[in-house]
Amino acid sequence: MRIKSGVTTKRHKKKYFKLAKGSYSNKRNRWRITKQQVEKSMAHMYVGRKDRKGEYRSLWVTRINAACREEDTTYSRFMAGLKKAGIALNRKMLAEMALHDADSFKKLVERSKA
Q: Is 22 helix (H, G, I), strand (E, B) or coil?
């Protein structure tokens, strides 16, 4: 007597259908199309998580550059000056300072110029 895999298969498919919830047309309720869609979506999710990091970095650079230009310097000169001065702050922190703490950012610009 053979053992049918009904319970296992149903559990496996249920995971995919749950992930496909909200998809357009048949992509949420037909097994083969659902499986393809979920796998494609998961590939895009993975890539998107990596891309997001670069998007944030470019946002921080833009904010730092805007704040630097208000202080009559450019982003590249500012970063080079910080490196020569031995100040190791990451772009996220510099962007936060430029946005919320303009006085200390101004002092950093002065240190980088000197």
A: coil
